[in-house]
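Q: What changes when pyridoxal-5'-phosphate is included in the input?
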Amino acid sequence: MNAPNRGLNHFLAEAKPSATYKMIDRVAALRARGQQIISLTAGEPDFDTPAHVRQAAIQAIEAGKTRYTQVAGLRELREAVAAKFKRENGLEVTWQQTIVCSGGKQVLYNALSATLNVGDEVIIPAPYWVSYPEMVQLTGATAVIVPCNEADGFKLTAQALAAAISPHTRWLILNSPSNPTGAVYSTSELVALADVLLANPKVLVLSDDIYEHLTFDGVPFHTIAQVEPRLRERTLTMNGVSKAYAMTGWRIGFGTGPSWLLEAMETLQGQQTSGASSISQHAALAALSGPQEFVQEARKVFQRRRDRVVTRINAIEGLRCSSPAGAFYAFVACESLIGKTTTAGTLLQNDEDVALALLDEHGVATVHGSAFGLGPYLRLAYALDDDSLDMACNAIENFCNSLCNAV
Ligand code: PLP
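A: The predicted holo structure follows.
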């Protein structure tokens, strides 16, 4: 029987809660029962926010900078954001061409809800970050999911993009480095996509660059507005401090794009949050304009962890994982496990069954690939210390070795 309609907004009633948060809640429930769990679910660095950033926030509190700020963000922070876009992305923008929101997530949500109507379509390459389709759903528009397979490095090809565009297409969402695959688009891949977009002038581009600073082995990062300046007038380039400066809880994201869009986002934000936390904005200012060594150090640590995890996973019979060029996720193919039975008697029919059995029976939490639009895979976030990662890999190996063929 359907759940009773309690008068929810229709679009919200159809939206799914985040699969990542669902898994995190399950981990919390198991831990509350006293079970030892190693969680590879959370999309956040395990480091402390850099000391000078924390200090800037304390100083802001002590100096009484605790009042409302301008809706689109403190001018000093917007200047630092503009300087960041120039320094790191070659985007010449003024501070007025930027916006600061409560997390990168709110930049995305503001942009989508400011522009989408029922009947509009948003192209989302899969595997995708879990929130994109749900954000689109909340606006009443339609997410057009374009599958990107492993052979293409989980990346959208120009042909697939061209085939997905319709007269209703409003946005294309790009995310590089990607959550959940860690895939990074090269300049030539972005140029190929840009050529298709130039031929379709009505399509807006949302470039989610939140993992910009986490690319490995010298793989360079490029954002589409930099690669093809003719797309600037219809691209929202979005970023934030969460992943680069270990500041997930501070909730500061920012973006640059066409003025008409930023103004609409500001209007929305003005009626919604009135702007991001003043203390967090001062902290983000210190992060963007202070010493940048932390970013490079974090990158080195994640690259080492990636190598550790990918090597271990590929040595496990039944699992396969290519070495991701960025972010802090490994996207592990687990099709060989489907159809097997665990020692507790659970038949693994899909990747969600695999993730749940691995958690319940071996104490390792992951998120199933189909939650990101492509199964059967498991997403492993390797934002944990080496010992925990080794223990998790040992448990995953034991789990795989203990599976039996179903009779
Ligand atoms: N975009 C992607 C791809 C993410 O993975 C995340 C966070 O997990 C975000 C955006 C949102 O980041 P923030 O913490 O700044 O809201």
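Observations recorded in class: The pocket of pyridoxal-5'-phosphate is lined by residues 43, 103-105, 129, 175, 179, 208, 210, 240, 242, 248, 253 (CB under 6 Å).
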